[in-house]
Structures are given as structure tokens and as C-alpha cells.
Amino acid sequence: MSTTLGYGSQVVLSGLSFEVNAGDYLCIVGENGSGKTTLMKTLLGLTKPLGGSIEFADGVTARKIGYLPQQTDVQRDFPASVQEIVMTGCLSRDGFRPFYSKADKALAEKNMERMNITKLRKRCYRELSGGQQQRVLLARALCATQKILLLDEPVAGLDPKVTAEMYDLIESLNKNDGVTIIMISHDIDKALQYASHILHVGDGIFFGKREDYPHELKGGAVHE
Question: Are residues 125 and 96 part of one domain?
Fold first, then answer.
């Protein structure tokens, strides 16, 4: 059964059918305006499908998905400490409450260590470099889930060295920690290097293993 996505009566993406299994690394590619962000918002439960449905298994719900969004300039200038921002990931998982538990604090500590940002815990977020900020947001996302991460252009605006480090970090989370990755990417070359599966949307829809991705669709994904 295919799914149709959009807003109100406006269809953005139709004929969509795919599945993600535990441990997969799925890259969503396609030209600008093809529906990638709409799909991400639907997976997060922020919008509902216009037709068909999105189903979760293994106890996964939209609230238990870790999300790393694209940042606005205002968000990059957020005046809070690294530790405070990482801790908010626990609220995404369990909802708002007045105090963090010991388990929350231990989880935040663990994920800061995983992202190698423990020494930055007291630093103000807006004073960090772009790569450091992305590591903070990844640690926050990991506090929301141990199963699945949704990443929206996680290397946008980063220099080549930091971009390579971020791709390696995401690959390690997938291969070594078993975290399922769903990532929007404009970089089809990197998608084909790291992903286990490709979902191409827009002018032609493809879903399958990366080695089966049709050559003729590669021109419909934006290279950066």
C-alpha cells in the first residue's frame, strides 16, 4: 500500500512505499522541493499522511525517535550550556517534567562521552564551532532514543574535515552501536558510500539497496 504526503489538500509526494529495519542506514535523496522534509515531518508525527499510513514496530513511536534538525541562525545562537541542551533529549523521550532523574543525568553523561564533548559540558552552546554544535545535537538526539535517529542534512555548512568526521561518527553509531539511521542528504556520492539503502523521491521514486540504485536517477539528486 502506497502513502501520499502533503499539507491540507496539496499533495507533495505520492506513490511512496518503503520499509526500514533495525540496523539499516537509509539515505533519503532527491532534488529540492521533492518532499524529503515533508516525509521527515510525517515520520516525526508532525503531519499526517494524506493517504495510506506509516506504521512503527518494536515499540518505536514518533516520540522515541531521535531527531537532528537543520539549524536556524537563532538556534545556533542559543544561550544554554552544552549539558543543558543534551539533557533536553530526555524530555523528548518521556515528556516534560520539573526535574531530571539520576538515570537521565547518567544517560546524558554517557552520550556526551560518546560524542567526545564531555569537556565542553559547561561551555555555552553558541560559542561552539559548527561541528561541535552538531555533536551536541547528536548527543541530545541519542538521549531521546537508543534505536533510531532521523538526521536532516547533518553536515550542512561544515568544512570538509568536520564533514568527514561527522560521517564517520554516524557510521560508527550505525555499525558499532546498532542505531538505525534515516538521513536526508543532498550528497548522493556520500549516500552511496555509507548508506545500506536509498530512498529517492521526486522525479521518479526508488527504494532499495544502494547497489541497486539506478544510474539514471542519480542526476535527479542534488550534488553539493
Answer: yes
Does residue 60 sit in the same domain as residue 9?
A: yes
- Break the chain down into helix, strand, coil percent, rounded to 5: 40, 20, 40
The answer to whether 153 touches 185, Cβ cutoff 8 Å, is yes
Q: What is the pTM of this model?
A: 0.88
For residue 122, give its domain range. 71-144
Of 5, 69, 47, 20, nearest to 181 by C-alpha is: 20
CB of 200 within 8 A of CB of 191? Answer: no
Which of 20, 48, 29 is closest to 201 using CA atoms?
A: 29
pLDDT in tens, 13-40: 888 899 999 999 999 998 888 888 889 8
Residues 129-140 pLDDT 10s: 999 999 999 999
CB distance 223 to 185 below 8 Å: no
User: What is the C-alpha to C-alpha distance for residues 170 and 84, in angstroms, rounded to an integer?
Assistant: 22
